Amino acid sequence: MSSSTSNSSVPLSTGGKAYFIGLVGLTLGFLVCAMTLVWVVDPLQLFRVAKFYPAVISMDERTQNAGVLRNYPGDSLIIGSSLSQSCRADDFEAALGGKFERLSAAGLSAKELNFYLEQRLKRFPTRRVYHISYWFTFARQGAEEYRSDFSGFPEHFYTFGLWDRTKYLANVDNMTRSLEIMFERFGWTHIERIAFMDRNSGETDPNRVPGRASVAKSYKVIAKRPGPSQSYLSAERARMQRTFEAYYVPVIAGHPDTEFNIIMPPATLSYYKAYETSGVYRRNTILLFRRMLLELAETYPNVILHDFSADKATITNYDLFFDTHHFTNAICASIATQLAAEPGGTDSATILENEKRIKKWSHDSPAP
Known about the structure:
By secondary structure, this protein is of the alpha/beta class. It contains 15 helices and five strands. The protein has helices at about 15-40, 60-70, 90-95, 110-125, 135-140, 155-160, 160-170, 170-185, 210-225, 230-255, 270-280, 280-300, 310-315, 330-340, 350-365; strands at about 75-80, 100-105, 130, 260-265, 305. α3 links the parallel β1 and β2.
């Protein structure tokens, strides 16, 4: 009597094994080729500066800035929130000499400012920093955090450890972008670039138009809305003072060999008048920030203040502003020239006098 045995696990045939191994090998080979393409093209410039193609500026500044911070050498730095977007590195180089780079980020928080400065100063010896200062960097809600909006803050692109590099190389979006760049290189396609996010662009968002109508629209938004509660404004002022001490002062104190040129930028008189109309407390918070900068300069010899806030011909010329306080490249180019002419900055007496001028002029000036 014969008996047969059955086995529930049926081994792959020789042909099946070969097919499976070939499929795995093909997949791994494709992945390695795609990752190699990302490494060669490097669409975000995280390994190196783009050489054989124009840098692709099509993402949020916080993503784009990682490559600039890591790989663009320079002994001088322009940094700031959206107020610095109209400042061109070339203008500063022409006026002041040296090699400039720019790190701008709309809605910059105090924590992000600290991170940018510490990472940049650690990576490249920097003689001069030109900070286009803005009180709201320190006062805004979320000043003590990385911004979760604006596509988030990709801290891993800046630290860029081994695992971060692997994820960058294996990212499908980066593979797709690398292919697009190669296709463009051979003339088969064209990538639309966002010029105003370029590190050296004097352009701003093309949807923003300078002039009285734009300033008036911005003024009405601020002046006509109900002002925040007193408790909110008090917390805002306290937050400004707290984050200034926690995130700004330590960078300056920790880098005594770097010259920090803090620019007190111009804003239209309508900016101060709007806050005077909606509630003088916030206007006074803005002016308090000036006093904090003044105290900082008196404490640390590597700080120089440059006050451009009270040039009446500028702050009453609405054709130079996109809204109540965002200015065009014409103003920033002029700032660069004046910085070269007066490298010692603005003395404390003039800064205090300018504060009085701002109060009087904004109070006396008509709405736009």
